[in-house]
Design goal:
The chain is α/β, with parallel strands linked by helices. The protein is built from 7 helices and 6 strands. The protein binds flavin mononucleotide (FMN). Flavin mononucleotide binds next to helix 2 and helix 4.
């Protein structure tokens, strides 16, 4: 068989590789689910890796129970997305080190760890790859693909700051869910969440209307004294 047979053709383009999303046991699980929602609505394939420690936080924060089977269907149901989208979403347990995102031969567009706990941050920054989320992040860095880390802790101690700095030096984008105030869009919790999710999508060059960009906003009318 000639190698040319394997080339993608315009009439049969290969689907875009998935984006790996890691949800860990930091507060802010809604950020992870909102990102998944937006990616799926954009037709992006998502490979979700979810840590066991995140289960309790997810339940406390969203009421969603993540244990057991059929996780992908339950996530879709939670997000009010149609079951037909299940082809776009794979969910992996954190101990599945044999799962596809564990290998650099598996193509992805990159990975987002959102929210990223200080525990998982420490594992990634120090090359401790005994969980799938840490291994997938390690693979993302070694393959020079986009790694976006959305850390959640306050305040940070020196260990957190050192680990964040180490990851930034290795090419990761550190994108904390910072409060933002400079446009009316940001005046609600939803507006704040949309801002962070929009900033993550920007990192992958994905178009969205989650917030108004500076320069496209209508400035408030001047008030006469
Ligand atoms: C309700 C709740 C909220 C938590 N919030 C945070 C947090 O914001 N940041 C953090 O680093 N850890 C947080 N933790 C602690 C982590 O869940 C814990 O360190 C865990 O071991 C992280 O494991 P993982 O990185 O494998 O998910 C929280 C725990 C609970 C129960």
């Amino acid at each position: 068989m000639s190698p040319a047979t394997h080339e993608p053709s315009l009439s049969n383009p290969r689907p875009k590789p998935p984006i790996v999303v890691g949800i860990t046991g930091a507060s802010g699980s809604i950020l992870g689910f909102r990102l998944i929602e937006e990616l799926l609505k954009l037709g992006q394939r998502v490979q979700l890796v979810i840590t066991e420690k995140s289960y309790q936080v997810i339940f406390e924060e969203t009421g969603l129970k993540m244990g057991g089977q059929n996780k992908a269907l339950r996530v879709l149901d939670h997000l009010n997305l149609p079951e037909s989208m299940v082809d776009l979403l794979d969910v992996f347990e954190n101990n599945r080190l044999d799962a596809a995102p564990s290998s650099g031969t598996h193509m992805t567009q990159g990975m987002v760890v959102i929210p990223c706990s200080m525990g998982t941050l420490g594992r990634i920054a120090n090359g401790i790859t005994d969980t799938l989320v840490a291994r997938a992040a390690d693979v993302t860095l070694k393959e020079h693909r986009k790694l976006v880390v959305v850390p959640r802790e306050s305040p940070f101690n020196q260990i957190h700051l050192r680990n964040l700095s180490l990851l930034a030096q290795c090419g990761a984008v550190i994108l904390p869910p910072m409060l933002t105030f400079y446009l009316p869009d940001f005046g609600t919790i939803d507006g704040q969440i949309n801002y962070t999710i929009g900033k993550v999508l920007d990192q992958f060059g994905l178009g969205h209307d989650l917030y108004t960009r500076w320069g496209q906003h209508i400035p408030p009318a001047e008030t006469s004294a």
